[in-house]
Amino acid sequence: MTLQAPPHRSTRRGQTRQVGVEIEFAGLPPQETAQLVQTLFGGELNVVSPHRLLVRDTRWGTFGIELDTQYAHPDQALVEDAHADDSEWARQQHLRRVEFHRKTRELIGDMVTGLVPTEIVCPPVPWDELEALDTLFKALREKGAKGTDASLLYGFGLHLNPEAAALDVDYLLSMLRAYLLLAQWLRDEIKVDITREVLPHANPFPKEYALKVLDRNYAPDLDGFIDDYLHFNPTRNRELDLLPLFAHLRPEHSHALLHNQLTKPRPTFHYRLPNAELSKPGWGSAVEWNRWAEVEKLAADRQALDARCDEYIARNAQSLTTRLKNTLRRLFKRR
């Protein structure tokens, strides 16, 4: 597959933009998955705990592989508590608690393997090397990994984290506007799995917020842009999650969501919509990148973006009664 080049191939610092990729699947436990990653990309295999592994020092950096449930992994706060000021007896008691905790979490992981997904968090990859990363998805498919469509219970997704080309509000607003305008097209192209539609992880933006953002009179500064987003979207569960980007831009912001342990500050768009379609030969991050690239192209075409914003506002700002009348009028004209 030919990768679509984005309008902005580099950041404002002149560096090739990178894309983080995350994928969930069943049918292959973390240990086997990590060994597969190491076989393909080299690096050093590091077992953090029985169900959490790292493959370090690959050509792009560190891959993280784990069961996607916190209950299969030791609580680091408990494990790292040194109890340095306690008596020898108290320290020994703590070590026994830690050992029991580790064994319990390992047992939980053993029990839920096959019920909860394995997740791979890839290191940031230059956008023009995504095809090389897709050798991993081909290998997973050949090893029997199961994607979203393998079961009604599998609400698995692939997440892309494209690095922002710039961090000013004009660029970010254009990107959000383009996404809002193309969101339904993306859903139609992807054919979002019914299980993932029911689960809350990639919910659409509320219409009220879309109408606000797509109004061309909307011209906030960066802080206003962030505050409006948080007001209308007090959740991580959006198809395009901007919380990691905002946590990076405003680490001092007081909103609790920007300090949630699951919100990792980074200068990227967290795009959560695609299915994990491992059953489809040829599918991978390149396919989903090319769909995402349409958002970037529209965002960079100011004339087309403005025209489509105006069209959206004209079509959706009308009352329900007016929209119904217009629909009926069009139907009668066709007859």
Number of helices: 12
Poorly predicted spans: none
Q: Any idea what the shape is?
A: globular
N- to C-terminal distance: 44 Å
Strand content is: 5-15%
Query: Over the alpha carbons, how many angstroms does the gyration radius reach?
Result: 23 Å
Order of helices and strands: EHEEEHHEEHEHHHHEHEHHH
What percentage of residues falls in helices of 4 or more residues? 40-55%
The biggest sheet, with number of strands, parallel, antiparallel or mixed sense and barrel status, is: 7 strands, antiparallel
Structural class: alpha+beta
What's the β-strand tally?
Answer: 9
Mean of the pLDDT scores? 88
Identify the notable features of this structure and list them briefly.
335 residues; alpha+beta; two-stranded antiparallel sheet; 12 helices
